[in-house]
Amino acid sequence: MSKRDELIAKYAEDLSSKCNMTADMPLLTKVTIGCGPAIYSDDASTVAGSDPAELETIRKNFLIKKLGLEDGPKLMEAINAVIDTYGRANRNKYRAVVYYMLVKHFGKEAVYK
């Protein structure tokens, strides 16, 4: 099993145990691949849910640029809802899991097809 496959399995487990979601494995795999080498860096692979600058980066670079969503208050509301679902007290919020939940939230699976 490759390192990426191990990480994808870990992300699927997080979705199941911490977010009460069953992962769409092909989509989770594509979202993970889309994160690029960031998944292998301890710092870049996680999201600091309490850091406004980090959440702003997710809004601009992922939701607007990658998913093609229009800017508006609904974007930050969705990010906060995903962080709440993942658990604000949970220290390790994996970027691929947060992105996956945002893709599902906005119904933007077609971006990864």
Q: How is this structure best described in words?
A:
The protein has 113 residues and is mainly alpha-helical. It has 5 helices and no strands. It has helices at residues 3-19, 25-34, 52-66, 73-86, 95-106. The chain is globular and about 40 Å long.
Name the features.
5 helices, 113 residues, mainly alpha
Q: What is the general shape?
A: globular
- Share of residues in helices: 55-70%
Strand count: 0
Largest sheet features: none
**Rg from alpha-carbon coordinates:** 13 Å
Low-confidence stretches: none
Structural class determined from secondary elements: mainly alpha
Question: Which percent range describes the beta-strand content?
Answer: under 5%
User: What value does the average pLDDT take?
Assistant: 96
Distance between the termini: 24 Å
What is the N-to-C order of secondary-structure elements (H for helix, E for strand)?
HHHHH
